[in-house]
Write a structure and sequence with these properties.
This protein is mostly helical. The chain has one domain. It contains two helices and no strands.
Amino acid sequence: MFVRNSLYLLREAFRNLLRNSWMTIASIAVVAITLLLLGSFILLNYNIELITENIEDHVE
């Protein structure tokens, strides 16, 4: 029963992904852009911390 329901759900999911291809592409693009922005902000934060530590070491 569980396997049959799981296969049905997967089949319906892929069918709907193909039917709504523009929405699928748009949602994937939004997730990718969001992850890119998040990674950029994390990297920016890390670099700012390194720069401030470097400046603190030079001031002392």
